[in-house]
Design goal:
713 residues, binds zinc ion, alpha+beta
Length: 713
């Protein structure tokens, strides 16, 4: 979903949009060569609007009206917008506005955002046109909600796309109409090739800048497949079509009934099965049911849960996905940087993503576990049906789900939406008793002590436990409600308990213990303090590249980064994180020792890990490890090196995309990936052998966990 700029002022205080909305009938002529457009907008106004109204329009569009006088009425924080006042004559319920002029703001990088695309409030150019509500390309009244019908006259060979339904197909003109309430009107146009598939109830469209039938077909098929899946899961798709539109700079936007993706993004092979279904699902959450941003954005978490998580769950990788979600939270969100979900509006950093997508996604997962799949799905269906084209907030969601399930979900929502932070768990002890007096049906008692170690009050949690039993392959799984910092749990079991695992499938939103997390690049990229150590003894060309990468990474504003040559420091720091560069690095010996805990062996000529062996003279490598320190135990560290100076800038550019991994190996000038993965986790503090009556505790592997059904197939 697009990030909305700022909520527009409520000029029509009190009237709202419940009854009717302004309806715009727009006749547009696009002049890409002049970066301009001219428009006649016939606006039908809702009954009962005040005679004097205000609207926003781009400051270079100079509106006039045959019906009323238009006056400038103040500046806006968005400098390209102008506020106007119009007073209608009595008895007049429509207004015609004529305006024309230039809208040309070339896309720019947002300085706040490290890993995002360029953006613009709006552009009309020969490469293409992208106009949104933020552009002020049509007059926006009140809270901006409206319905519309538009006719665009286009240059030869151009197509234009907006929301909703295509009402007429003709040369040189495009016609779109949407009668359901919309937050804004989009107008995208360019010289496109159009592909269509319309044998389903919803039309699938693809607009590419160059002819590519195979690519278009992949997306047309995916559109039909995902829309069918989500219609089964949630309810009818709310629009007449879904279109994939290729942009002329790199973007990843989901708008109502279409998505605007950059040329490179579209051609990444995994997008059609990852970001693409996410954007399609936003037509239900975010662009179908809208979001009341003032109380926090719930739609990203729900969309991540029912797209990103669901697609992994369908492949049996739900627990893995949840673990990496929790890992991002642990890596990027330190206590001082945390904030409650109620304050999330849109993603602008790894940290805001870890809360706004990650924590929210886990909240929906916990809700599902608590209610059961059937109730959870039914409630989502009800919520969708009741709030389509409205703007519910978290409080509406809470109320809707409480009503439908007959449970008071207020404490649940207060805990996860309003409260900052996460629970932290510790498995203190697990002790078995054999009760000779009881029949053999439940002859074993197990006492488990679990503590919540986070600062502040206890959380109310449905704690999943898996108990591995003597003589049984499958572990016994159960869920126990806890609400205190110190919980003593009693279980009666039919067989001898050997091992206990707390939350083995990462069903709870919680701060993972360091030992549950393998070292990963995200821990170094996400650190608040980073030391980069450069190799003085490396050849000149490599030294220059290593130093260049260090300086580029030093620019990350959310981190305090220090750069040192290896001969300038005596020892590695006790806190923060460390990047070591180069085979020649004086501290490589310490890293080599730390790597051994991950079953990776480093020699003078290469590194061996997983199933592969990688050569110093041939491969670009990046590895992580936890390095022991004198005082605080361990800090995350990483090492990177390449044999050829030309490989290093490519490595530096690629690595942030491997943030969740522990290691990555590449070959060739293009840096083709050869290996990537996470070190195995050993010694989780949330799993332990049960202490038997005789005082012994023998460690055994965890029993098998039952395979879970995905929410939908
Ligand atoms: Zn999204």
């Amino acid at each position: 979903m697009r990030s909305l700029l700022v909520l527009l002022f409520l000029f029509l205080a009190g009237t709202g949009y419940a009854q009717t909305l302004p309806h715009h009938q727009l006749n547009i002529v696009l002049h890409p060569e002049q970066h301009s457009l001219s428009v006649k907008d016939l606006i039908t106004l809702p009954s009962g609007v005040p005679r004097t109204m205000y609207f926003l329009l781009h400051r270079d569009l100079h509106p006039t009206s045959p019906d009323a006088e238009i006056n400038a009425a103040g500046e806006m924080p968005e400098t390209w917008l102008q506020r106007y006042r119009v007073t209608l004559p009595p008895g007049c319920d429509s207004l015609t506005l004529n305006y024309s002029g230039e809208i040309f703001h070339p896309p720019q990088q947002d300085a706040r955002e490290a890993r995002t695309f360029e953006s613009t409030p709006g552009i009309i150019a020969t490469e293409g046109t992208v106009l949104t509500g933020d552009s002020g390309w049509y007059p926006s009244f009140g809270d901006g909600m409206l319905t519309f019908k538009l006719d665009v006259a286009l240059p030869q060979g151009w197509h234009a796309i907006s929301q909703g339904k295509r009402t007429n197909v003709s040369d040189a003109h495009a016609h779109w109409e949407e009668r359901q309430p919309q937050n804004e009107i989009y107008l995208i146009a360019a010289p496109f090739t159009e592909y269509a598939r319309s044998n389903e109830s919803v039309e699938s469209l693809v607009y590419l800048r160059n002819d590519d039938v195979a690519l278009a077909q992949r997306y047309l098929d995916a559109t039909a497949r995902y829309i069918a899946m989500y219609q089964r899961l949630i309810g009818p798709y709310p629009y007449a079509k879904f279109a994939l539109v290729e942009n002329f700079w790199e973007t990843g936007y989901g708008m109502p009934s279409f998505t605007l993706l950059g040329s490179q993004v579209i051609r990444l092979p995994f997008i059609v099965g990852t970001s693409y279904p996410h954007e399609i699902l936003h037509n239900w959450w975010g662009n179908g049911v809208y979001v009341d941003y003032a109380s926090g954005n719930w739609s990203e978490g729900l969309t991540a849960y029912l797209a990103d998580h669901l697609l992994q769950e369908q492949q049996g990788k739900g627990a893995e996905y949840r673990r990496s979600t929790l890992q991002k939270y642990a890596d990027f969100v330190s206590a001082g940087r945390d904030f409650p979900l109620a304050q999330f509006t849109s993603r602008h950093s790894e940290q805001s993503e870890a809360v706004g997508y990650g924590k929210a996604m886990m909240m929906f997962h916990m809700l599902r576990r608590q209610l059961g799949d059937d109730v959870f799905i039914r409630e989502l269906q009800d919520f969708y049906r009741n709030y389509r084209f409205k703007r519910p907030g978290f409080a509406d969601l809470e109320q809707a789900l409480s009503q439908a399930s007959g449970k008071d979900l207020k404490p649940f929502f207060a805990q996860w939406v309003q409260r900052t932070g996460a629970p932290q768990l510790r498995l203190v002890s697990a002790q078995a008793h054999y009760d000779k007096a009881r029949s053999s049906a439940a002859g074993y008692d197990l006492d488990v002590v679990v503590e919540q170690t986070q600062p502040g009050p206890a959380y109310t949690l449905d704690l999943p436990l898996a108990v591995t039993l003597a003589g049984q392959d499958a572990a016994y799984s159960t869920v126990i409600a806890i609400k205190d910092k110190h919980s003593e749990l009693h279980l009666q079991l039919a067989a001898q308990p050997l091992r206990v695992d707390v939350d083995p499938e990462f069903d709870l939103f919680r701060r993972l213990d360091r030992a549950e997390i393998p070292a990963a690049f995200s821990q170094i990229f996400g650190a608040e303090k980073l030391l980069i150590v450069l190799p003085r003894k490396a050849p000149e060309a490599l030294r220059a590249q290593y130093s260049g990468i260090a300086q580029a990474w030093q620019k990350q504003p959310s981190r305090e980064t220090t750069i040192k040559w290896d001969d300038e420091i005596e020892h590695l720091p006790d806190e923060g994180a460390v990047w070591l560069f180069g085979w020649e690095n004086g501290f490589r010996g310490e890293f080599k020792n730390a790597l051994e805990k991950n079953s990776a062996a480093m020699s003078e000529t290469g590194v061996r890990f997983g199933d592969g062996e990688y050569q110093r003279a041939q491969h670009a490598l990046a590895l992580t490890a936890h390095i022991g320190t004198a005082h605080i135990g361990q800090i995350p560290a990483a090492w990177l090196a390449a044999p050829d100076a030309a490989m290093l800038p490519v490595l530096a550019r690629k690595l942030p995309h491997y943030a969740k991994f522990s290691y990555a190996a590449f070959s060739g000038q293009e840096l083709t990936n050869l290996a990537k993965g996470m070190w195995p986790v050993t010694g989780s503090p949330l799993g332990r052998a049960v202490k038997q009556e005789d005082g012994n505790a023998v460690d055994v592997p965890r029993g098998k966990l039952a395979i879970r059904e995905s929410l939908v197939r």
